[in-house]
UniProtKB/TrEMBL annotation:
UniProt source species: Prevotella scopos JCM 17725
GO molecular function, a single term: metal ion binding
Domain of life: Bacteria
Lineage, highest ranks first: Bacteria, Pseudomonadati, Bacteroidota, Bacteroidia, Bacteroidales
Annotated keywords: Hydrolase, Metal-binding, Pyridine nucleotide biosynthesis
Signal peptide start-end: none
Pfam families: Isochorismatase
Family, similarity comment: Belongs to the isochorismatase family.
One GO BP: pyridine nucleotide biosynthetic process
Pathway(s) of this molecule: Cofactor biosynthesis; nicotinate biosynthesis; nicotinate from nicotinamide: step 1/1
Protein name, entry field: nicotinamidase
EC number(s) from the headed UniProt entry: 3.5.1.19
Domain Isochorismatase-like: residue ranges: 4-150
Length: 183
């Protein structure tokens, strides 16, 4: 079986920055350990990242609902260090795909970014991926939206949600409901 590890938005702003998720630091450190121990199970590892322009429409002071977060080239947009080290040290490294890089468009799923979705789809096809293991931040928002889009885009691929590495703003309720619907 060829598996893809898809880690959604493990960025500083979602861990200790402007939009923190409770338990995110512990979950991302545990995920770093998982990557060190299990990375050889994966044909490819992909990390997604919010990559917002400074005046992104989703920011509260721009008329949106979120505090300013994951601004391009900012410290808050960086990948969590322990996870970054684990991914860089793993066989084959990882591929980084961006979303939310258009000033006027919210993208809660990597599949909503045409360029990144195209790259992901080509990689899945070329590498003959059978299963996607997904996790990241926040479980009830970007992980959930990406998981839903993955199931509708890749109909013949098994989706496995790594819930321990997907803390949520809602305590995990929405993601848990979705995982229940997959069974």
């Amino acid at each position: 079986m060829k598996k893809l590890l898809l880690i959604v938005d493990p960025q500083i702003d979602f861990i200790t920055g402007t939009l923190p998720v409770a338990g995110a630091a512990e979950a991302m450190d545990a995920l770093a350990k998982y990557v060190k121990e299990q990375s050889n199970e994966y044909t490819i590892k992909i990390v997604t990242a919010d990559w917002h322009p400074y005046h992104h429409s989703s920011f509260a002071d721009e008329g949106g609902v979120w505090p300013r977060h994951c601004v391009q080239h900012s410290v808050g947009a960086a990948i969590w260090e322990s996870l970054l080290v684990a991914l860089n040290d793993s066989k084959g490294g990882f591929t980084l795909l961006y979303k939310g890089d258009s000033i006027d468009k919210d993208e809660y799923s990597i599949m909503q970014n045409k360029a990144s979705a195209s790259i992901l789809a080509r990689l899945v096809k070329a590498l003959k991926v059978d299963q996607i293991d997904i996790c990241g931040l926040a479980g009830d928002i970007c992980v959930l939206n990406t998981a839903k889009d993955i199931t509708s885009t890749f109909e013949n691929i098994k989706l496995n949600v790594l819930e321990p590495y997907s803390p949520s703003l809602d305590g995990g309720a929405a993601l848990n409901d979705f995982v229940g619907s997959l069974k």
